[in-house]
Design brief:
Layout: E1 7-12, E2 20-25, E3 44-46, E4 51-56, E5 88-89, E6 92-96, E7 100-104, E8 110-116, E9 119-124, E10 129-130, E11 135-141, E12 147-153, E13 156-161, H1 165-173, E14 180-186, H2 196-209, E15 216-222, E16 226-228, E17 235-236, H3 239-250
Parallel strand pairs: 14-15
Antiparallel strand pairs: 1-2, 3-4, 4-11, 5-10, 6-9, 7-11, 8-9, 12-13, 15-16, 15-17
Helix pairs in contact: 2-3
Length: 255
């Protein structure tokens, strides 16, 4: 700021993960500021896991109430519905063709084109679209998907597993099947705020005491580095291993 450079801060709301706050400082009068945001998010699987729903929230005032844990205006101004705003939104979405059978939207009229042989381009069919509701894009898949893995950056991935009804039924019918539990504990520096790491220790102790007999388990902590309780993927849950787990849990610190 002393050198007349701009200052910009982007924060993600802890309560509403799709709500971002951008603070812009030292913007000279009459100048424009272009903000580019890149993020990775897990998309919802709907309708028997054969459809992915991509949502871009555009309506802020009706969705977030400051009196109920939302975000209040720093200037203390009264929020208005966004359809009274004089600005509009342009929408361009690129979707890889692989395993996609159909793309539709229940929120806006869209048009779908092809910019490359393996990429769809989704745009609004109408011009001057106002920010009066969320943008919903449904991507129908050729085959059902139960797993999603997204590369966030080098050395990091985000993965999710959604068990199907058949998976649950198979486990219930197979009484001889061994249950496995892998606990992944966030020990990064942010866990030091509001005693989050202390609450994580309490929760872990509760989970450990609630594990069923003859199951297998492991604990993986991550922060500045990562560490697993057992070198194997999982180990048998017995008195000796339970004591090791409780000792590791009591030593969890935010780093």
């Amino acid at each position: 700021l002393q050198r007349s450079h701009g200052a910009y801060l982007l924060e993600q709301d802890e309560i509403s993960q799709d709500n971002f706050i951008i603070n812009i400082g030292a913007l000279p009068p009459g100048k424009e500021c272009h903000i580019h945001i890149s993020y990775v998010s897990e998309l919802d699987l709907v309708q028997n896991r054969n459809r992915i729903r991509f949502v871009i929230p555009t309506t802020i005032a009706p969705r977030y109430n400051p009196d109920k844990g939302g975000i209040s205006s720093p200037a203390g101004t009264t929020s208005k519905y966004v359809q009274t705003a004089p600005y509009t939104i342009e929408f361009h979405c690129r979707v890889e063709k692989a395993n996609v059978s159909r793309i539709s939207s229940t929120s806006h009229p869209i048009q779908i084109g092809v910019c490359q042989e393996n990429v769809y381009v989704v745009e609004f069919a109408q011009q001057n679209t106002h920010l009066d509701r969320d943008i919903l894009v449904d991507i129908e898949l050729v085959d059902n998907r139960s797993n999603t893995i997204v590369a966030v950056e080098s050395g990091a991935v985000m993965a999710s597993f959604i068990p199907t009804e058949e998976d649950c039924q198979r486990v219930m019918n197979n009484v001889a099947m061994t249950n496995e539990f892998i606990f992944v504990v966030d020990c990064s520096g942010s866990m030091a705020d509001e005693n989050k790491i202390g609450l994580a220790r309490e929760a872990m102790l509760l989970f450990l005491k609630s594990l069923p007999v003859d199951c297998h388990f492991n604990i993986i902590r991550f922060g500045s580095n990562h560490e697993a309780l057992f070198t194997e993927i999982t180990a048998i849950y017995n008195e000796q291993n339970a004591q090791k787990a409780e000792q590791l849990t009591s030593q969890l610190r935010a780093d």
